[in-house]
Amino acid sequence: MDEEFRGSVQKELIDQRGSFYSKYTTLFLGRRGFFSFLKYEIVILFFANMPGALGFFFRKLFYPGLLKKVGKGVVFGRGITLRHPKKIVIGANTFIDDNVVLDAKGETNVGIVVGSNAFIGRNTILSCKEGSIYLDDYCNISANCHLLSETEIRLGKYVFLAGQCYLVAGGNHSFEDTAIPIMLQPSYSRGGISIGEDVWLGAGVIILDGAAIGRGTIVGAGSVVRDVIPEYCIAVGTPAKKTKDRKTSL
Fold it and tell me: Going from the N-terminus, what domains does the chain have, and what CATH number goes with each?
């Protein structure tokens, strides 16, 4: 499989010699312009942590102006972190719980696209490092999950992640040059992560770059997926392997 070396925004920030304002806008807004900066700061300052129904009301009113596109009926919880918000799309009737991180940073990526009627649980992190994340309609991401994309993570409709799941598309570092710290050497991709419709990942499942899970499959708690898992099966283990066919076992 073709492996493309990719850089990191964090590495660029380490080398950047610009001002604090320049670094801040690069990391959080992804665009220059004082008006955009001021609007972002005012909305986050006054409404990000406002409690109760009033907080929900004002976030519903003002957050769509920060993002690229927001459907009707979206609910924003408290303490949500938004980075590169103009690269975030959220479909209608989706619920974003408290302390979620939506980090769409990157210069050439699409960012984060969440479908309609989705749920993103408390303390979950969706983080892009030049990659993109796509959650289709009715996706349900439980609390304390982490999706990190240097290339692409794509979840189909009705995908359900239990708590503490970790998906990383990319994150593979070259390490041949011992004179350079590993974190400063190029990272590369094995193709991203693809999860078909109606997939259930048990608690603490880890999905690594290059993995693909077929439609209707269940992955047991604590499993590690690094390859292709066929559709309509049950897979468990480290690495995860097919143990049962859902269709023939009925």
Answer: 5-245 (2.160.10.10)
